[in-house]
Amino acid sequence: MSIQQNLLHIKSKLPEHVTLVAVSKTKPVSDLMEAYNAGQRIFGENKIQEMVDKYEDMPKDIEWHMIGHVQRNKVKHMAEFVSLIHGVDNFKLLKEINKQAKKHNRIINCLLQIKIASEDSKFGMSPNEASEIIQSKALSELQHIKVVGLMGMATFTNNTNLVEKEFTLLKTTFDNLKELQTVNCKLQTISMGMSGDYQLAIDCGSNMIRVGSSIFGERNYNN
Ligand SMILES: *Cc1c(COP(=O)(O)O)cnc(C)c1O
Question: Would the keyword Calcium be found if you checked this record's keyword annotation (predicted)?
Answer without folding.
Answer: no
